[in-house]
Amino acid sequence: DIQMTQSPPTLSGSVGDRVTITCRASQSIGSWLAWYQQKPGNAPKFLIYKASSLATGAPSRFTGSGSGTEFTLTISSLQPDDIATYYCQQYDKYPYTFGQGTKLEIK
Amino acid sequence: QMQLVESGGGVVQPGKSLRLSCVASGFTFSDYGIHWVRQTPDKGLEWVAVISYDGRNEFYADSAKGRFTISRDNSKNTLYLQMNSLRLEDTAVYYCARDPAGTTIYWYFDLWGRGTLVTVSS
Predict the structure, then answer these.
(1) Which end of chain A, C or N, has fewer beta carbons within 10 A?
(2) Between B44, B106, B114, which is nearest A43 by CB?
(3) Residue A87: phi, psi to the nearest 5?
(4) Do residues A51 and A68 lie in contact, with contact meaning Cβ atoms separated by under 8 Å?
(5) pLDDT, tens digit, for every residue of A76-91?
């Protein structure tokens, strides 16, 4: 199975900060990566697909990049509404696996 | 408003069965493949199964093969997950999630339900 490793596990930032979450795959997955946002008590919400394509309705301050084994999700200007846990997911090879999540907090 | 709403979760003993349902609204259900994904505090998010838009193709995670069956009734806009021989490790919140592709499967999820909790306990 492809292992997805996210770092850091927890990230703290101030409103307006630029923050970056990293996701590494145990083998190359091309650009077949998605990102999701999950707020406490809610279902995950779709943010990014194909590593860098923004989902319809997702705020433009979210940017995805990377290919192969290393990927990033960047929030250009952190907002209070962005407090959530973020997950990456590879959909290159079965079984389609998720990272363990990065919890984003406001300082 | 596009929506998926799960139901059917509850507390069940090991070895017993449970059937989950997921009702779709706000979009043409029969145009999309639909997945089940589960989440636990320990193991995180885990893909469980998918069924194609027309119900002809099903795929399962190894943990679900032989015990779980995914099905759909497009006339009722409803997805099902029949779970048999339940184990302690099947305890999780179960989400249904839409695949963004139409006649194929892209294997990621563009719309999620709010989930239903399944607890397997003696």
Answers:
(1) C
(2) B114
(3) -125, 140
(4) no
(5) 999 999 999 999 999 9
Judged against a pLDDT cut of 90, whether residue A24 lies above it is answered with yes
C-alpha B53/C-alpha B30 separation (Å) is 5
Q: What is the pLDDT of residues B60-78, one digit of tens each?
A: 999 999 999 999 999 999 9
Q: Are strands A33-38 and A45-49 parallel, antiparallel or unpaired?
A: antiparallel
Q: How far is A34 from chain B (nearest CA, A)?
A: 7
**Distance (Å) from the C-alpha of residue A27 to the closest C-alpha of chain B?**
18
The pair of structure tokens assigned to A62 is 């979210």
Contact criterion met (CB < 8 Å) for B106 and A91: yes
Q: Tell me the nearest-neighbour CA distance from B43 into chain A, angstroms.
A: 8
Rounded Cα gap, residues B35 and B50, in angstroms: 4
- Which residue spans within chain B are E strands per DSSP? 3-7, 10-12, 18-25, 34-40, 44-51, 58-60, 68-73, 78-83, 92-98, 111-112, 116-120
CB contact (8 A) between residue B44 and residue A100 = yes
Report the C-alpha gap between B49 and B66 in whole angstroms. Answer: 12
Closest residue of chain A to B41, computed from CA coordinates = A100
Structure tokens at B65: 């093969």
User: Which chain B residue has the Cα nearest residue A96?
Assistant: B47
